[in-house]
Amino acid sequence: MKPKFITLDGIDGAGKSTNLAVIRRWFESHDLPVLFTREPGGTPVGEALREILLNPETKAGLRAETLMMFAARQQHLEDVILPALADGIHVVSDRFTDATFAYQGGGRGVPLQDIEMLENWVQGGFGPDLTLLLDVPLEVSMARIGQTREKDRFEQEQADFFTRVRAVYLERAAAHPERYALIDGNRSLEEVRADIEHALARSFGMDV
Ligand code: TMP
């Protein structure tokens, strides 16, 4: 079986952390080799950039921010993601390029064609086999972020920023339904879990 590259994405407060545990258990129960990683991050360079990017003190313009996301991604692909896939290990990344389109494109206003250009340069034609996109209404996202004690640089943004972020995620999922599993995260944990397991099983060609 060709190893899969799966990403989990969505606006802050959509429930990624809880559902990463669901994905972990699914791989364990199917005895499939898998590596979990995250963006920005996943390598020493990526984690150093993450510190800068999430630090509320950082004053970075929208282009510098976008380039840092892709710098982290380049190193992540080269050192972690592609080698794992070449070794026959599935990779699950907590966020990937969809987040750059949504946050830097939608949120900050970087033209989407500029992001596409960087995507082509850094990734060639490479991208996820499956993206699990967790979606919640803005009020739910804002309420969950509101409970975070120390908000990072993105979590400090206002509702209109997250409205734009969410809109780009939803547009991308609608444009490429074959690659995305759009999951309504505003339901019981059980219902969300069932949808995630269903999407994973379908992607692996298992009977569902
Ligand atoms: P998280 O660990 O909570 O997902 O935090 C990562 C933050 O970084 C989140 O607010 C989204 C943001 N981000 C971007 O703005 N662009 C990107 O390309 C990525 C990967 C993350």
Automatic annotation (TrEMBL):
Annotated SUPFAM superfamilies: P-loop containing nucleoside triphosphate hydrolases
Catalytic activity: dTMP + ATP = dTDP + ADP
Keywords for the protein's UniProt record, in alphabetical order: ATP-binding, Kinase, Nucleotide biosynthesis, Nucleotide-binding, Transferase
Highest taxon in the source lineage: Bacteria
Pfam families according to UniProt: Thymidylate_kin
GO molecular function: ATP binding; dTMP kinase activity
Domain (Thymidylate kinase-like): residue spans on this chain: 8-196
Gene Ontology cellular component annotations, sorted alphabetically: cytosol
Annotated protein name in UniProt: Thymidylate kinase
Organism of derivation: Neisseria sicca ATCC 29256
Gene name of the record: tmk
